[in-house]
Fold:
Amino acid sequence: MNDEERKTVELFTEHLRLTPLDPEADAADLHAAYGDPDVTGPWLDEPASDGPEQTRERLAERLAPTGTRIWTVRRLEEDTALGLVELVGGGQVPWLGWMLRKSHWRQGIMSEAVTAVVEHVLLAEGVPMLEAWANASNTGSIRVAERAGLTERGRFAVPDAQAETGMREKVVLGRTGPGVWTAFHAVHILLPVRDVEATLAFLDSALGVTAGFRVGPPGAPARYASAKLWPWSNGPSLRLRATPRKPITPVTVLLDSAVPVAELYDRVVAAGGTTEGPPVREEWGDTEFCCVLPEGHRLEITGPA
Structure:
């Protein structure tokens, strides 16, 4: 199946018909969702459309990039487009998005539609993997993804002026096709340090980074340990290895924080840590400061102002 043939694929489920989007014909129906801030906010992080014509323009823009396909979602015996499912390719991992008019939420419609697209793309077309992003607070979309076989693969934070911390957490969900395996499951930064226990204590006091496992002789200080950057199992961490005599070459580690940077800076100073100065706003928009460990390792911490 070539790219042009893929764009014309219709999908049918027990209750639904998914047809390729026609911005001209479908804008009036889809404006019921595009014009609703309760839909466009969680889906796009954008304001609602002010009329069907703007919805048509926005639909055409979303459909334009190479590798993008969008299906409208209808009940089998009805003509009204209730929502859409989009597949955006062009990158290493294609990603999914979806939206549905609010009057039809919690009826199983989007779970059935997204599952149909996922099964078709992974099984019929042989695409190796798919992913979707959802706000951590958007439990409805997370459940839709999970019912389509996607599972959580990671999390990250994005700026959000309306959030209490200034950041909003995003969940990355993904699913692989048959016979596709992930080569690596995590990456950890290994820092050689003079005193593992002292470094763990400082990171806990200054940054709220808690100790995970410790390895060492019974009753003696740890010689190898993990400093967990989030509370869940197998999440990102700093690995600390005692290096009492060998020379240590300092490295720089960039930490994306969901906590306001000024708060972390104050904690580092109060804990007796060394910095390269107070937080500054960089030209690319991030606010950051640098904490320097005794061995010279630089922790560049970036996050909400």
About this structure: The chain has two domains: 3-176, 189-303. The CA atoms of residues 23 and 56 lie 5 Å apart. The first strand starts at residue 11 and ends at 12.
